[in-house]
Amino acid sequence: MKDIDDSYFTILVDESSDIFTKEQLAITMRYVDKLGQVIEQFIGISHVSSTNVLALKTSVETVLAKQSLSIHRIHG
User: Fold this and answer.
1) Distance between CA 73 and CA 22 in Å, rounded?
2) Which of helix, strand or coil describes residue 60?
3) Is residue 3 domain-resident?
4) CB atoms < 10 A from the CB of 62, how many?
5) Which InterPro entries match (predicted)?
6) Chain centroid to CA 1: how far?
7) Cα–Cα distance between 69 and 62 in angstroms, integer?
8) Is 56 among the domain residues?
9) 36 assigned to some structural domain
10) Mean pLDDT for the chain?
11) Phi, psi of 70 (to 5 degrees)
């Protein structure tokens, strides 16, 4: 996470159910490091109670905050 500094990044979010039919959200980020290399890194998995947009957004924000990342740095 130190390589990213204040740079922009993108995220890949994938939702699926586990064997107990609990919804899970896996989040991977992609960014370009100081050497110009594209880096992909898994940053977290979260259980979600609902797959509506508000619940998913809240879960993404929580995982990003645990890594000291801001949703405002995501480049779309």
Assistant:
1) 29
2) helix
3) no
4) 13
5) DUF4371
6) 13
7) 10
8) yes
9) yes
10) 87
11) -105, 140
H-type alpha helices, 5-47: none
Query: What is residue 40's DSSP assignment?
Result: E
DSSP annotation string for 27-63: EEEEEE-TTS-EEEEEEEEEEES--SHHHHHHHHHHH
- Domain span holding position 32: 10-73
Report the DSSP beta bridge partners of residue 29. Answer: 11, 41
Rounded CA gap, 51 and 44, in Å?
Answer: 17
pLDDT band at 6 (very low <50, low <70, confident <90, very high): confident
- Higher-pLDDT residue of 3 and 68 is 68
Alpha carbon distance 76, 68 (integer Å): 19
SS3 36: coil
The total domain count for the chain is 1
Residue 34 domain-assigned (yes or no): yes
Q: Give residue 11's identity as a one-letter amino acid code.
A: I
